[in-house]
Amino acid sequence: MIAKLSNGIAKFIRENNEQAASMEVLVFSTIIVLNTVLVTFTVLVVAAFTGRLGEAAAMLFSYVLLRFFSGGMHLHTSKHCNTVSIGLFIVLLHLPIPYNDVGFYLNLVAVALVAWYAPTKDIMHLNKLGPKYTIHFKLIALMIVTANFWIASPILSLAFLAQALSLTPPAYKGAALLKGGELK
Fold it and tell me: pTM for the whole thing?
């Protein structure tokens, strides 16, 4: 469904703009945008119905911000990514954890994982700054997560932990298994 819609949008852009990128680039770009819109819209709608709209917006924003600087595992199909992302955010959003008893410790684990694994090689090769700025991305990612020790939000603790877990080797192995690959 998203691929078909992306093809239609890309075709429309190519027909109406002589300077547009190649068809492949346009399709790829519109798939990313449509997937992001689908996940965000679905999570925000569910959150609005359950009275957690503000928390959902904070969770989505903080997760994406940390992911931009830390990288992380990607699932191999949009369908898997959308399903896992929507399910993950909705479940995390409704977990009743207090910050002082649980969230603080989740945040500590997230800091340790980010310090150890971030940024991933894939994110450093995708950005225009290149690998020489790895330490900068690591420090920014650490600052984002450690800011929650001051903010003290259980929702942010969950978002940061979920993102930090996507940096780990087991996350990459899980993605490979989901694709149909083998554990090495």
Answer: 0.89
